[in-house]
Amino acid sequence: MVYTKEGKICVCLTLLTLIPLSSAWNSSDVQAIRKNGVLSSNYDRLVRPSKITNVSVALNLLTINYMSWEDYRLAWDVTKYPDITDVFADESEVWRPVFFIDNSVSDLNIISDSQLLYRITHTGEVEWEQPRMFTTHCRIDITYYPFDTQLCQIKLTSWGYSTDEIELHPTFSGIITEDLEPNGEWLLLQTSAKKNELIELGANGVITKHWEIVFTIVTQRRTSYYVTGILLPVFLLSYLNTLVFILPVESGEKIGFILTVLLSLAVLLTIITDKIPSTSIEVSILCKAHTLNYRV
């Protein structure tokens, strides 16, 4: 809109026409990439990409487990398909490393999921994020319960591929905890991820080496509940237990008083026993002290 000297108004109208760009994303390009890659007759998913394949592994406490590796056979020319950054494939179409949890107590199967898709970038990098919960064996030390610190490990081991065939290494120095919500009973102190070499001696005397990544989680018990609900009653009853010696014999309340304290200690010991994990490797100092009260 423009004002002229004569006071007239000139209105200029410009029409813009939207023309689709020739380089926009389209499904035909994705189909062509998949046809020349994972669906190609020259691609065999049972053959690993290279002599030694580097595999990166990351663990999330919320069970989003990340793995990635390079498969040059799945790369494509980015100049030919500039708007296609990645394509997807399932586990029946691409090669993947085989892993299992070595110290699992509920599931010793190979880690896999036919419902999850693999993301493949133009460089041939394959990314696999698999949500899964692991139940592993952890040795519990309750010596200083409830002021105890526990260490638990998740051991991810390669299966079928030796150290000469794949190079396994953790993506991060610890476990991803950015999505971890506070827990009312446990406080997370630290995590770590370390690569170990496993040596296996076969029946024919042949030594085979496999890679293993050990994810370590160190937690500390929150003590507020246990101090107010267990320790203070124990100390109070222990103090009351000694008062029986100052009661005069003439009162006739010695037996009644000590029986009341004894029954209270028995009930409290039952509560403590239900709270403490069942193990005979280490015995809690609290249980030992509580048992001594009966002797007194």
UniProtKB/TrEMBL annotation:
It is a multi-pass membrane protein. The chain crosses the membrane at residues 225-248, 255-273. Its main location: membrane. CDD domains: LGIC_ECD_cation, LGIC_TM_cation. It is found in: Membrane. Keywords: Ion channel, Ion transport, Membrane, Receptor, Signal, Transmembrane, Transmembrane helix, Transport. It comes from the Eukaryota. This is Acetylcholine receptor subunit alpha-type acr-16. GO terms for cellular component: membrane. Residues 230-287 form the Neurotransmitter-gated ion-channel transmembrane domain. The keyword Ion transport applies. One of its GO terms (molecular function) is transmembrane signaling receptor activity. Residues 1-24 form the signal peptide. Belongs to the ligand-gated ion channel (TC 1.A.9) family. InterPro entries: Neur_chan_lig-bd, Neur_chan_lig-bd_sf, Neur_channel, Neuro-gated_channel_TM_sf, Neuro_actylchol_rec, Neurotrans-gated_channel_TM, Neurotransmitter_ion_chnl_CS. Pfam families: Neur_chan_LBD (PF02931), Neur_chan_memb (PF02932). Residues 54-223 form the Neurotransmitter-gated ion-channel ligand-binding domain.
